[in-house]
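Re: that chain you flagged

S.,

Sorry for the slow reply, it's been a week of failed gels. I finally had a moment to sit down with the sequence you sent. For the record, here it is as I used it:
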Amino acid sequence: MTDGKIIKALSGFYYVQTDDKVVECRGRGLFRKKKITPLVGDYVEIDIQDDGSGYITSIYDRNNELIRPPIANIDQAFIVTSAINPAFSDLLLDRFLVLAESENIQPIVIITKMDLLDDQERLKIKQFQHAYQEIGYPVFLVSSKGKEGIHELIPYIEGKTTVVAGQSGAGKSTLLNELKPGLNLETKDISKSLGRGKHTTRHVELLSMHGGLIADTPGFSSLEFQKLEAQELSDCFPEMREKSPYCKFRGCLHHQEPKCAVKQAVEQKEIPPFRYEHYLHFLQEIQNRKPRYER
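Prediction finished late last night. Pasting the structure tokens below so you have them in one place:
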């Protein structure tokens, strides 16, 4: 038996990196019976056959996992959103941030296409950059033209497994091509009729670069909070997590409860009002979610 890490999943095959080679593997039927799906990023035990192929015999415990994109054992997330074309959406960005926080993944915000902005638009994005940096998130403003900001990301890659996720058309594949020249990942223009990007990445794969592993993942435009409970949501907002212990009531949802330290911080502009509005939006979404029943 040999240990390794799944670096690519494609058409029912799993490509496992061992100490000295990549082995094409299939999963044992046992996983299907137990409804377990091996994920890119999984640390696994494999049984290598005489012909050089292998079978995954065991999956080690995961530190975390994402559903969309399907990937496990992530240290950090490059959350990529565009400044324009498609338009910058702080609501969508906060969805990604909440998802990363809920899985204990360190988010790093990357805002692309800065070269396409006029001075007024650039100022608005810089205001958002400042707001998120005050919360504690690293925020990088980049553009492929002139490679603005690209080199600043490299120190964050070494020794980490990083997932690159974000809105469709934000330039995730373009960013990776700039980080690793010669990678030549497929990119496409924005759909004029839909105003959003066409999906160019169709599978999840860990790419080796700058001393770390980066996952290029299929783009998507919306996220649902499938596992997050209402009581857990404020913990996914660092600025609210800091204030929550000072609320009068334990389990305060920071909505209609009196003597709420979070609402007081919003009134005093210690918490950005737009973040609190997004929190209430997500809270209602979670509370209105239809219950899921296990079969």
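What I noticed first: The CA atoms of residues 246 and 261 lie 6 Å apart.

Talk soon,
D.
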